[in-house]
Amino acid sequence: MWTIAGTLTPVPALDRLDLVADPVAAALRSMADGARLAVAEIDPALADTAEFCAHYGSPLEASANCVVVAGKRGDTVRYAACVVLATTRADVNGVVRRRLDARKASFAPMDDAVSLSGMEYGGITPIGLPGDWPVLLSPEVAAAPELVIGSGIRGSKLLVPGEVLAKLPGAEVVDDLAR
Questions:
Q1: How far is CA 78 from the centre of its chain?
Q2: What stretches of 19-74 adopt beta strand conformation (E)?
Q3: 85-97 pLDDT, tens digit each
Q4: d(CA 85, CA 53)
């Protein structure tokens, strides 16, 4: 039972892989905890967190956002995903830049984030990202009993325990990631 679902109708994610992006579906099939996740169809126009929470009655503090960051040092670009509660922001220029050993870090350009992840902008999720990307989680995300996150597309959301995200390939819980 998902207490954060609001008016959503969550169903087992493995039963509705048509509601997630292809890389997310592949990851869910291979996850030991895949059966613990649910998915709910939403209006794609309401995918942005504030609008989603207001419309569907899901608490903002139970939503987590995933942003793709590009860190550059010389000609080398390293990507990472940062997952923080929607009520906070990722410390891209401090904690993330240092973790990526980059001189400069910023949100990845939309076209790069979409093409490299295989997901829709506004729906990018930490599940199913390229295997060589670190997935940086704030401690609050990892400890959350249940969260709403993207599904790789704008037309649905995943419901997931934070501990499942902490077990993802490349996942690291990073102190002070969120401000």
A1: 18
A2: 38-41, 64-73
A3: 999 999 999 999 9
A4: 13
- 21, 120 contact by CB (below 8 A): yes
DSSP state of 108: P
Q: Is residue 34 part of a domain?
A: yes
Q: Is 41 helix (H, G, I), strand (E, B) or coil?
A: strand
Strand 171-173 to 135-137 pairing? parallel
pLDDT tens digits, one per residue of 109-154: 999 999 999 999 999 999 999 999 999 999 999 999 999 999 999 9
Count of other CB atoms within 10 angstroms of residue 141: 29
On whether the pTM is more than 0.85, the answer is: yes
Q: What is the CATH number of the domain that holds 102?
A: 3.90.960.10
**Closest to 127 in 3D by CA, of 11, 9, 10, 33:** 33
Residue 7 lies in a domain: no
Pair 143, 29: CB distance under 8 Å = no
Residue positions counted in the chain = 179
> How many domains is the chain partitioned into structurally?
1
Q: Indicate if the pLDDT at residue 1 is higher than 80.
A: no
Q: Which domain holds residue 45?
A: 12-173
- The label of the residue with tokens 């059966």 reads 35
Q: Is 146 within a domain?
A: yes
Q: Whole-number mean pLDDT of the chain?
A: 97
Using alpha carbons, select from 176, 146, 137, 6 the residue that is nearest to residue 62: 146
